[in-house]
Structure prediction request, 455 residues.
Amino acid sequence: MTSLYSINYHTRAHKRDAFIEFIKSLLLNPFVLHTRPSFLAADSEETPEWEKKFAPATRTQKNSHCGEGEETQDENVKRYCEVLQCVEELIYDHILHQRQNLIELSRLSALVPSIGRFFTPLPLRNSFIRQDAKRAIAARRSVPPSFNDIRAVLNDAQVTAISSTVKLMTFDGDMTLYADGANFPPTSSLVRLLITLLHHGLHIAVVTAAGYPNSPAKYETRLAGLLTGFRSSSLPAAALERFYVMGGECNYLFRYDAARGHLVGVAPEVYEPEAVRRWSTDEGLIAGVLDVAEGALRAGASEMKLEGKVDVLRKGRAVGVVPKDGVRLTRETLDEFALTAQRALTSHSLAQSRSPPATTTTTSTPPPTVPFCAFNGGSDVWVDIGNKLIGVQMLQAFLGTKGWETLHVGDQFLSTGNDISTRTACCTAWVTNPEETAEILTELCSLLGAGEGGK
Prediction:
């Protein structure tokens, strides 16, 4: 049984978030231990004496610890809050260790070895109280706190924590600002919310995998509803021109030109650091990585007997598997493509780093490693040159913001997603649809407005 559990756990690791699973396990204790069962009334004459001796005290006090009353729910809230207060303290201890470059020695690192960086403390206790009022988490007796409950609490806490320092917000496109494969609708509540963020002085950037080199018009088509909102807004040009689009993960940057009412390209030499320029201008190295990725994807299509059902498309900075019309690929199939490509490219990178230099001169410089991102896009799979971590980092350097001043919002934070890498650079919020994005932006706009009122 233990062996089978171990196999299942490791083969499904790409579907899990270790930190959320950790919090789930902690909250399961008060759910099980304190949401106690109601005992049926028993006939004392039929109850054996030995049973009376060992029966729990709550047996005759069924309303003291359980039931549907408000008092019981309040007690459950307190118990959940106690757990989350402890997690708050673990996170802050982790941050203090980060500052001394001793991250491996934090208590949280010992409990969750894969944990990364935190850029702000997280007020989880107060966020739980707010989310419980919406989701009735503490009132539930049959369903324990879930992945989505904890994700909502973490989002709430992160938005609250960063509201006083945020200067840059970056967004994924599909399933974050608009439906998968769709365009930004002009009727979306996100139009007003994003304009409000620009009004409050924030920089806004869409960081998307969609790669259209030298084609701002194609991005304008995807963002048509938002850009229409910009043109009809009363915001000054300086505010509107704080809007950017980073395409192809990190390969193409555009900004909004208020005078023209359109997106215009930003030259790479303006925002790309030298370390990125070393590989971004080497078309031979990039082609080599894409060759490996294409080979892995074609092999995967053959092994899963999908030839004739999918197309393998090659672009200048990406290669992907796209289902033909009428074909729908399962999540498991998409994950298999992504993980296979990740493995092949990681092996390629290791082989490149271990290969002997082309020359024997001591002044020769080894070729740069080309970063990549292989991810499940929901209905297709793509391997991109570069990743969103680089895209966000370049925006931060270009706009002069730090990790605790940047919030990235996206829907792909599992290991087969392309938002997860941004956790290394900034604060993040994990959503599953544009409606959730609107919910957290509404809260953020409210906090920003309250902050201005207090000045």
Notes: The first helix runs from residue 2 to 11. DSSP finds 18 helices and eleven strands in the chain.
